[in-house]
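Revision sheet: C-alpha cells.
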Amino acid sequence: MTKIVLVNNIYNVFLLSKTTKHILKRLFVIFLSCMLLVPSFGSFFVYTSFKLNQEEISKTICVQRKMVFNTCNGRCELQKSLKKYADNEKRMQNNLKEKAEVIYIQASISNNFKLTALIESEAKNFASFNKKPIGIANSTFHPPSYFI
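Predicted:
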C-alpha cells in the first residue's frame, strides 16, 4: 500500500513540474521578447530617468542652476543625454555596417573556370519510331517499398 502512495506522490510531483516547465517557458519567451524591444525604447529610458531625477539635476548639474529665475529645470542636460544617446546609436549602426561589409568582402570567392572543347559523339542515343507502337502498358511504375 505504501508503494502505491509513493508512486502517486511521485506522479503528482511530475505533474507539478510539467506545469512549472510550461510557466517557465512562457516567462522565458516574454523575457526574450522584452529584451528584443529594449533597444527601441532607449530614448524613452533616458527621458524617464531624467524625469525621475529632474529636481536633483536642476539643482546640481544644470548650467543655469545659479540663476534666480531658472526656466531650464535641467532640460539642457536632457538634451545633452538624448544627443549622446543618438550619437551612440549612430556609432553602433556604423560599426554594424562596417562588420557586414567586412563579412561580405571575406565571403567573396573567385573561381577561374577554364573553357573546354565540346565532345561530340557520333552514336545516336535515341530510338526512332517509324511504325506505330504494338503494345500499351496499363500499369504505372511503383518504386520498391524499401525506399519509402
